[in-house]
Amino acid sequence: MSKILFDLPSTLGSPGFSRTESKRPRLGRDQLLWVRKEGFVPNPDFTSKLEASFPNKLVPIVVGCQSGARSTPATVMMLHEGYFELPPEESRLVSPTEASDLVTKGWQYLDVRTEEEFSHGHAPGAANIPFFLKGKEGFVPNPDFTSKLEASFPNKLVPIVVGCQSGARSTPATVMMLHEGYANLRNMEGGFPAWVKEGLPSVVEVIEDEGL
Asked: Does residue 164 carry a catalytic annotation?
């Protein structure tokens, strides 16, 4: 199956590309992940231009840039938007009850919500590595997700259940983990609210107020 490669240089251009390379399918000036004004800032039109250029989200895509500093967050963003999704038969979805049964059997539970969400309630024994971080203008990709994942789970054969708040983050996180070589994964549908709704055990972090 052929792959499509598009590059993510700055609006100033990239002298590193030859004429042959420039013939590859490539996003235009308004489709770049970053635009250069006073330093690099996120391109607000990246997602809309991406969907216009690649309406089929299952098409194989290789993402590249000048050094990897932009292609990595671009890939995470694309995962969040539904690109690189697994076929239905490989979706690895499990219900909260099935997830609980797996944890009882020794599977690890990875919660990819923010630390704040995690502190308000989580599955007992769960590890917390946010897939997205909450910024001033909404959620942004966590640049340390992969490094923290490998530090917490160096054995990529360890069985892991991945959960979040609704499935919107655990799904792309699961896909990224598969791409990173993790083999035994399950994605819990419905997120933590579904876990609570099933009456499954949960833990709430107690944060002491230092002013008291």
From this structure: yes
Q: Which of 33, 129, 161, 164 is catalytic?
A: 164
Tokens of 138: 């909404």
Question: pTM of the prediction?
Answer: 0.63
Closest to 33 measured CA to CA, from 1, 66, 83, 71? 71
C-alpha dist (Å) from residue 15 to 11, 22, 34, 95: 12, 11, 17, 50
Q: What is the sign of the dihedral through the CA atoms of 164, 167, 171 and 172?
A: negative
The answer to whether the Cα torsion of 193, 196, 113, 151 is positive or negative is negative
Say how far apart CA 161 and CA 208 lie, in whole Å.
Answer: 30
The angle at the Cα of 202, spanning 200 to 92, to the nearest 5 degrees, equals 60
Distance of CA 63 to the CA centre of its chain: 15
Host H or E run for residue 4: strand 4-7
How crowded is the C-beta side of 8, counted as CA atoms within 13 Å? Answer: 24
| The two three-digit tokens of residue 123, written as one number | 């599955």
pLDDT per position as a tens digit, 112-136: 999 999 999 999 999 999 999 987 7
Residue 143's SS3 state is coil
Neighbours of 212 (CB within 10 A): 4
